[in-house]
Each structure stands twice: as structure tokens, then as C-alpha cells.
Amino acid sequence: MAKFKLDETDHSILDMLIDNTRTPFTDIAKKLNISAGTVHVRVKKMEEAGIITGSSLRLDYIKLGYSFIAYVGVFLNKTSQTQFVLERINDIPYVTVAHVTTGKFNIFCKIRAKDTGHAKDIIYLIDDIEGVTRTETMISLEESINDKKRLMHSIFNTID
Predict the structure, then answer these.
(1) CB 9 within 8 A of CB 46
(2) Three-state DSSP class for 69?
(3) Phi-psi region for residue 141, left (φ > 0), alpha (ψ -120 to 50) or beta?
């Protein structure tokens, strides 16, 4: 498959969709002074090229009562147990992200909880998984930066 080349119009379309994935193509078209059909065709091409793989919804976790964030480093008895442990972690809905890592931890997870008591229960669930020798937790005091647009612009500036 040939490498898909993004131009400034594609960058602008992506920029607006990252701000709000529900932005109507007609609104994007008006802002960019192009037709809605052009926006549709370009988005479709980016989907077919695998650049756009879906859309997401941002939630206000504070309003939903899940403002507590913690990161849990998971130590395994053996690295061969990684897939088994990940499958069990995947069964815990409050684990929102899990990475297989190098370094200190075998797996690194992000959890969302109601409060410290709820977080403790989630951590105990992780700790009780067969193959987990121990966990180490870091509490997030504040999510200060969560900005995909800066990364996107950096990537665009490095693409030939």
C-alpha cells in the first residue's frame, strides 16, 4: 500500500475533528471554504488509509463521579504470564489503559475510581490475579496535559 500523503487541508480537517469528532462536514467545509463533499471524500480516504480509525467520545469523569486516577505498575512472577494477566485485567472495567512495558514493571495500568476506597478495591483485584507478585501505585493529583492536537501537529511537521 502506498504511503498516504496529507496536505494542509487534510491537517485542517483532522484538527477540527480532534477538537470535536461530531463536527458536521458542512461546518468543516464552511470554515475551510471547500465543499462538504470534498470533506467527506478526504475523510473517507484517510479512513481507508488507516489514518482515521474511528472516533471517540470525551466524558467528564468528575461529573460522573470517577475523578480519582491512579497508575498501577504490575510485577509478574514470569513474563510468560503477561497475556494471561492482561486478559484478567481486561475483565476489570475500571482499568482504562494497560501497557506491556520494559523496565521496572511488566504491565502499567491506568485506573479510574470513585475515591481512594474504590481504588483500593480495584488494586486488590489486580493484585489477586494469578501470576501477579505485587503492584506499585501512583496517585494522579491532576491530569495537567491531555492534548492530542500538539502531538498531531508535531507529526504533521515531520511528514514529508
Answers:
(1) no
(2) strand
(3) alpha
